[in-house]
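Researcher: We're teaching a course module on how sequence relates to structure. For the next exercise, students receive a sequence and then see the predicted structure as tokens, so they can try to spot secondary structure elements on their own. Here is the exercise chain.
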Amino acid sequence: MNSSGFPYKPFFRVIALAVLVVLFSGCGGGGGGGTAVAPTPPATGDPPVQSNWSPAKNAYVNTSSFTLTFNTDEPAVCRWASVDVDFSAMASACTTSYTQSHSCAITGLSEGAAYVYVSCADSEGDSDTSATNENISYSVDMSAPSVAIILPEADSIIDLYARSSDLPVVSASYSDDRSGIDVTSLNVTFTAMNRTMSITNLFGKDPSANKSDSRTDESVSDPLARTSVSGFAAGSFTSPAATWTVSHTGNGNTLNILEAGSDRIVVWDTAGAGLWIINVSGGATTEVVLGASPSSVAVSADSGRLYAVFPGDTRLHEYKLSDGSAAGTYDLPGQPALLAHNALLDRLYISYESRLEIGIYDCAAASLSAAVTVAAIPEILAAWPGGDGNILTIADSGGDYKLFEISDAGTILQSVSVTLQIPKGVMVDSDSGYILVSDFSWERVVAVNMSTGATTQITVGNEPRRIFKGSGGTAYVVNSGDRTITPIDMNTLTTGGDIAPAAPPVDGVCLSATGECYLVEDVWDISTQVSVTITASVDDAAGNTGDGSVKIYVNPPVPGE
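Model: And here is the predicted structure for the students to work with:
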């Protein structure tokens, strides 16, 4: 008992119970009819923890305004400021609803060192203060690097007839006084005949050695000896959708192009020791160094293989289409001369320099399956694009060029005399039943009806080379003499008006799957002086791009030299 005579503890227990009863009666719909109010959880005193800032702390940025993103370890609202103050004093909101992913529209930064202060608060009332804010420092660099082409000198003149020694090295210098040069971003191109070609791979990119300048490798005596491969929409050779760069070791007429499936083409140079696998859908180019110039090449897209034969070598060489790496060799009974591929049967035909036979190579089994005897050594070898396995050859038979259709059992199905001076290209069109053969010496193509043996002469441009099939029953003839393309309607064997692309064409192909067409071009096939622009660009660490360029002039070869 207390001094008043009342029991102390029971009294206060009664009071506490009464309070609980009153509070309980206010819940739900009973008695008091009041509305429940959820109590505010007590603050823990710990503000939200931030992470994953982008741009990251201490990064270079190349703008005064950008979006900063980051995360918190609990739902929060966040603000930012350029001065370090408490959350309640910040006016610039990042997110106004409670979330763990945040973005802030940063503005007003100045060149040089800059600071952004980010403050957050959770739903329990815990918030950052100037003592706990995230202090994010940036280096603001909005100035592009300085870039200049040092060699060749601007407005210099180069004579193509002496180009093996006179085409200069290309040298670029660059500097950046704030964030520094990103050497790996160096990009160097030259533009000629409305085609832009890359020579970037000829430049050193050692970060320690190329901080201020770089030049083409000293082992490359002719860095501008490059030309273009351009891709066009079906039926158009005006504005290319894409352009790739390949080496140009001889003249343009040594470059050849092959279809290699639905998304790849292969370019090879009969005057050089390399070829290029171009992934036209992905844009990548793989250079394959063969060590010697091939006599002939063929492609099996199904087997993923590229095949090549070389002078003085009695082996068939295989390479992977995926990366150009060597995949093995196969011994042949003689010196191979020409290759042709039947895509439907995945079969390779091989002619020989001094053997009157054609070997049949099974690409899937990687072995010779048979040999077919021929009456004359072929100068042109082709496969009929069908499942019967027929072989087509053009050969000089007693002073008369003949086109032979031969079964894979060796039976001569057709023997047609064709009046040719120098047979150069052949196209087999199974849809129309015609075979087209170009005569390089005369401005014509001979069309052979393989059902009847009848021939039709079609007038085309000067020095016709390659013939390739387009879409819609059209064939195209590349005339290397006058730099044109002649379209031929395969239904009527009539020609349309000649097409003159911006860069002189030397070979072409259209992908059967998409109808897109590709031309190998010779940008150095010029008859008058042309201008060539060389451009170098490089980024700094902040992502600013600087560039510089020079224009030079190139004279055509001098007649008689």
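Model: If you want an answer key for the exercise: Confidence is low (pLDDT under 50) at residues 1-42. The radius of gyration is 37 Å.
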